[in-house]
Design brief:
Blueprint lengths: L6 H11 L14 E5 L2 E4 L4 E4 L12 H13 L9 H12 L7 E5 L2 H16 L4 E4 L8 H5 L18 E4 L16 H15 L6 E4 L2 E2 L5 E2 L4 H11 L3 E5 L14 H5 L5 E4 L10 E5 L1 H10 L10 H16 L2 H22 L3 E7 L2 E6 L10 H13 L2 E2 L2 E2 L5 E4 L7 H17 L2
Parallel strand pairs: 3-15, 5-6, 5-7, 7-10, 10-11
Antiparallel strand pairs: 1-2, 2-3, 4-12, 8-9, 11-12, 13-14, 14-17, 16-17
Bound molecules: 4'-deoxy-4'-aminopyridoxal-5'-phosphate (PMP).
Length: 432
């Protein structure tokens, strides 16, 4: 098909040929042809500011990634059973970003594969099958990762349809939920009780999985001490702790490279993807050697393309770019500026309930009423549509789809985030 096909025709054909369950952004999405840094350009040469893309974490069409990919594709690309230098170098580089004990890497191709494997590693390491997960989370679409995903935004029947080995604890959200503000420390006590009860029932958990900073809820920090308390309970019962860093890890939070660092807790297993490949499908599970070894006897693992020469050189290029372009620092500085401007916006417009997040993972939560916190779901969708007209790509997240998920490429400039806030201010002032 030609790239200059009529836009509507392409969309109609897409809907005929691609499974309906695979949704696309917007009812009438622009047809994107190219990208550069935090910008996207459509087939009419209109430029958009991409404030939502945490896959193209180092920026769209980064020349260093293009060069690394081109060079490698002309040399070799094959399955990971062969011996080549890049896979070793890439694994060493990822392990070097983590605490010393997290020294053993599995390479896969996506976040779903990473969390699925992390769960299976926990089951194999303990010889158990029960898993505890946080509600309102999304961890992926494969069997095990879907089983622990209970966000009703993705599946309204999520909680009612869990397999019997999945147990859930409250979403530890200090803004909305059963424990608010200073009471939010009770979420940990509640979660520990669920874990202890499983122990008393003779089915102690194989593992516990959650995002260490609640990305799916809009970048909500877990209450202080939450992971320390919950991880300690899981370990007391001989279970394995899993940190799903697919969205929030890899420098995005600014102050911390990994989300678990914010909590001052170290998990037994880390699952990561998205930004690791800057658009190339790369996922990884990193754990301690003795846990990985137990998986040898408890399950099969081989991924044909996980850690391929192409993925490995791209993964190395992404890490180089994060370092050389100072992207974690950019997330801290530009993200900090953006957050402070959003806080000012929150004081001006009553629809803003609160501003969540850290670095370049921020969430702007819209409510109809500050006392009841009734979610402004329809308004959030309309605001996103209006922002598109003003040239900003933005999407809702959370169980009520009432939080703007603000997670642009990490190279986003101060000028761009100011443009975003000004556009948002205009929409909130003039209506949507
Ligand atoms: N975990 C989290 C926290 C995610 O946000 C996602 C994707 N949105 C996944 C896992 C699954 O990743 P993927 O889409 O690469 O399979």
């Amino acid at each position: 098909p030609s790239d200059v096909d009529d836009v509507d025709d392409t969309l109609a054909r897409r809907e005929r040929v691609i499974a309906e369950v695979q949704e696309h952004y917007y009812a009438q999405p622009p047809r994107i042809e190219r990208g550069w840094r935090e910008y996207l350009v459509d087939t009419d040469a209109r430029v958009y500011l991409d404030m939502v893309n945490n896959v193209a974490s180092v920026g769209h069409a980064h020349p260093k990634i293009a060069e690394a990919a081109h060079r490698q594709l002309r040399l070799l690309n094959t399955n990971s059973r062969f011996n080549y230098a890049a896979i070793t170098a890439f694994a060493e580089r990822i392990a070097a970003t983590l605490p010393d004990e997290l020294d053993t890497v599995f390479f896969v191709n996506s976040g779903s594969e990473a969390t699925d494997l992390a769960i299976r590693v926990a089951m194999a390491a303990t010889g158990r099958r029960d898993i505890v997960a946080m509600r309102e989370a999304y961890h992926g679409w494969t069997y095990a990762s879907d089983a622990v995903s209970t966000s009703i935004a993705d599946n309204p029947n999520a909680l009612a349809t869990r397999p019997d080995w999945v147990h859930t604890v409250d979403a530890a959200n200090s803004y909305r939920g059963v424990h608010r503000g200073p009471d939010a420390t009770r979420y940990a006590t509640d979660a520990v009780r669920v874990i202890d009860d499983l122990g008393v029932a003779g089915t102690p958990p194989a593992g516990f999985i959650c995002e260490p900073y609640f990305g799916n809820a809009g970048g909500v920090a877990l209450p202080d001490g939450y992971l320390k308390q919950v991880y300690a309970a899981v370990r007391r019962h001989g279970g394995v702790t899993i940190s799903d860093e697919v969205q929030v890890g890899y420098g995005r939070l600014g102050d911390w490279f990994w989300g678990f660092e914010q909590q001052g807790a170290v998990p037994d297993v880390v699952a990561v993807a998205k930004s690791v490949g800057g658009g190339q499908p790369i996922g990884a599970v990193i754990t301690r050697r003795e846990i990985a070894d137990r998986y040898r006897s408890g399950g099969y693992f081989f991924s044909s393309t996980g850690g391929s020469p192409l993925s490995s050189v791209i993964g190395l290029a992404v890490l180089d770019i994060i370092e050389q372009d100072g992207l974690q620092e950019n997330a801290r500085v530009v993200g900090g500026h953006l957050k402070s401007r959003l806080v000012v916006l929150a004081e001006k417009h009553s629809i803003v309930g609160t501003v969540h997040g850290s670095g370049l993972y921020l969430g702007l939560e819209f409510v109809r009423d500050h006392a009841t916190l009734e979610p402004a779901t329809e308004e959030t969708h309309a605001i996103c549509d209006r922002l598109l007209e003003l040239g900003v790509i933005m999407q809702p997240t959370g169980d009520y789809q009432n939080v703007l998920k603000i997670k642009p490429p990490l190279c986003v400039s101060r000028v761009s985030v100011d443009y975003f806030v000004d556009a948002l201010d205009r929409v909130l002032t003039t209506g949507w």
